[in-house]
Amino acid sequence: MNITPERVRFAPSPTGYLHIGGARTALFNYLYAKKTGGSFLVRIEDTDLARSTSESEEVIIRDLHWLGIHWDEGIEVGGDHGPYRSMERQELYQPFIDQLLAEGKAYHCYCTQEEVEAQREQQRANHELPRYTGKCRDLTEEQKAQYEKEGRVPVVRFKVPEDQTILVQDLVRGNVEFDSNGVGDFVIVKSDGAPVYNFAVVIDDHLMEITTVIRGEEHLSNTPRQILLYEALNVNVPKFAHVSLILGEDRSKMSKRHGSTHVDQYYAKGYLPEAIVNFLVLLGWSPEDIEEEIFTLSELEKLFSLDRVTKNPAVFDIKKLNWMNGQYIRKADIDRITDLSIPFFVQAGYITEEESTIKRNWLTKIVEAARERLEYLEQIIEHARIFFDDSLHFENEEAESMLQLEHVPTLLKTFREKVEEVDVVDTEFASSIFKILQKETGAKGKNLFMCIRVALSGQCHGMELVDILELLGKDKILTRIDKVLAYLG
Ligand code: GLU
């Protein structure tokens, strides 16, 4: 099969964080470029001056890099179609504005914001569709001069052709039709000369030779305006693929109430980027004839196709993400997981950064023992608490009640003696001690294992007991047992 290399782009507005939905859009674009041997661009759509910030741009770029989504052209990396921020492209927009004005396809509109709003109010009152009435469409030169004399500065409005059906042939949603009469003449240049998104995006996609626009479903309603502009300018209309929304588990649009919605929140909790990528790609896409769900980015670069993107909305299932992240944590190189876990230990006040270098081997072993149980790395704080915090602390009543059993003081005293006798609590000791305790005290099963576990960790369940013994080491074990015995009186 012959694949045409596609030029695609991710065009975030720098008005906040990188949202999970935006990251998925970026990923789909990236994968589609790779799959077709084409190019992936990132450009910044900063037309919303009031909300755009350079901090946001930095965060978005940083998070894309973190996810491993790199681009061939655009912001930071440069290329032949720059600049890659809309507001730096104003000069490039001008000829297109002039062309539309000269051909009578756009016009200067002198209505003030208040007047436009009043017209809309009136339309609502008459049960009409609120849209611009076209009041300034056919102003005479005298009328224009009069307005200018009043100090009014015009916007440029696009003249929407009447009675047209605008067809969006969407690669995900199929054919979607819009009636041009519902659109209303829209502003393409504000009175301060700044371009409006719907106009800038068309010129940018045109000049950047974008072949397919892959973006979120929320932009579908902008597409008819954009198609009208392409047609008015007599330039190629790109293909469109609008990817469905991501929903929360209650099937309403994914938002803060459903949990973390920003990529950097997942970074902060210790999710791995490859798990996020793997999870995101499955929100709306699935490979053909493959049951497997774990994919690396490079596998996805070969597997991805737009025709396997569904138009059904995807539901964000955090349990699935947690499961998947856990899989990646277990498979990852232990040194990397240790590096990523250390900041959590430091943050929790367990160790200082300096100590983390000195105690690296010990920390690595803790991470190795704990990672079996982790969904995301921040959870290591709880799992590893026992190695840093000597205070007596029971996770729940069940744990506390285990120590109230009659045989516990004898069991703990015997255990203490055995620990006292050895120089180090090593694997050999840790794996033979329970048989010995069972023989000498008669305690077995839960009464043996869980009681020792609770005495050492305050928890009924957790890491392998053998690992706990070894990682605590002789001194800490003795201190703890003494504390428990004192507490039991
Ligand atoms: N700047 C838009 C956004 O951040 C994207 C528009 C587009 O992809 O055409 O939602």
Tell me the helix content.
Answer: 40-55%
Low-confidence stretches: none
Radius of gyration: 32 Å
Count of alpha/pi helices: 20
Per-chain topology:
Layout: E1 7-10, H1 20-36, E2 39-42, H2 54-67, E3 73-74, H3 90-102, E4 106-109, H4 113-125, H5 141-149, E5 155-158, E6 165-170, E7 174-179, E8 186-189, H6 197-207, E9 212-216, H7 223-233, E10 239-243, E11 246-247, H8 263-269, H9 273-281, H10 297-303, E12 314-315, H11 318-331, H12 334-347, H13 353-358, H14 360-370, H15 380-384, H16 397-402, H17 408-421, H18 427-441, H19 446-457, H20 465-488
Parallel strand pairs: 1-2, 2-3, 9-10, 11-12
Antiparallel strand pairs: 4-5, 5-8, 6-7
Helix pairs in contact: 1-10, 6-7, 9-11, 12-14, 17-18, 17-20, 19-20
Glutamic acid binds at residues 11-13, 45, 201, 215, 219.
Name the descriptors.
single chain, 489 residues, mainly alpha, Rossmann fold, 4 domains, three-stranded parallel sheet, binds glutamic acid
Overview of the structural elements:
With 489 residues, the protein is mostly helical. The protein has four domains: 1-75 and 244-331, HUPs (Rossmann fold), CATH 3.40.50.620; 89-243, HUPs (Rossmann fold); 334-386; 397-488, Orthogonal Bundle (Arc Repressor Mutant, subunit A). It contains 20 helices and twelve strands. The chain has a three-stranded parallel beta sheet with strand order 1-2-3. A three-stranded antiparallel beta sheet has the order 4-5-8. Helix 7 links the parallel strand 9 and strand 10 (239-243). The radius of gyration is 32 Å and the shape is elongated. The model has no long low-confidence stretch (mean pLDDT 96). Glutamic acid (GLU) is lined by residues 11-13, 45, 201, 215, 219.
